[in-house]
Design goal:
With 113 residues, this protein is mainly α. It is 62% helix and 0% strand. Helix 1 packs parallel to helix 3, helix 2 (24-37) runs antiparallel to helix 3 (42-57) and helix 3 (42-57) packs antiparallel against helix 4 (68-78).
C-alpha cells in the first residue's frame, strides 16, 4: 500500500526542476495510479494533482503528455467539496488551479502545421 502525504508532494513540487525529464512519465503514472487506486483524503489527492501540474509547468512542458486525465482527476476532486471541507483543503485547491493556469500560460503554442 502506498502512502503519499503532503510533505512528499510538496518536496516533489519544490524540487521538480532538479528531476530528470526522463523520469517524468513514470512519475506521472505513479501519481495517477496512487490517486486512482488508493483511498486518499481529498487534500492528499489534490496535492498529487497539484504536483503533477507544477511539474508540467516547468521542465515537463517539453513532454507530449495527455493531461486530460489529470484535469478529470482535478474536476472529480472539486465535486467532493462541501461546506464542511477544511479551509486548508480550499487552499490546496487554489494552488492546484493556479498550477493549471500557470501551465497554460507558460506552455509553448502548438501550431497545427
Amino acid at each position: 500500500m502506498h502512502f503519499l502525504n503532503k510533505l512528499e508532494c510538496s518536496g516533489l513540487s519544490k524540487f521538480a526542476h532538479l528531476i530528470n525529464v526522463d523520469f517524468f512519465t513514470d512519475l506521472f503514472e505513479c501519481l495517477k495510479r496512487i490517486i486512482k487506486e488508493e483511498t486518499l483524503e481529498l487534500s492528499d489527492s489534490l496535492n498529487c494533482v497539484s504536483t503533477i501540474f507544477t511539474i508540467l509547468s516547468g521542465q515537463g512542458s517539453v513532454l507530449d503528455v495527455d493531461i486530460g486525465e489529470f484535469y478529470a482527476l482535478l474536476y472529480q476532486n472539486i465535486l467532493l467539496f462541501n461546506p464542511d471541507t477544511p479551509s486548508q483543503t480550499f487552499h490546496i485547491l487554489k494552488q492546484a488551479l493556479t498550477n493549471t493556469v500557470k501551465r497554460k500560460v507558460h506552455s509553448p503554442a502548438r501550431w497545427p502545421w
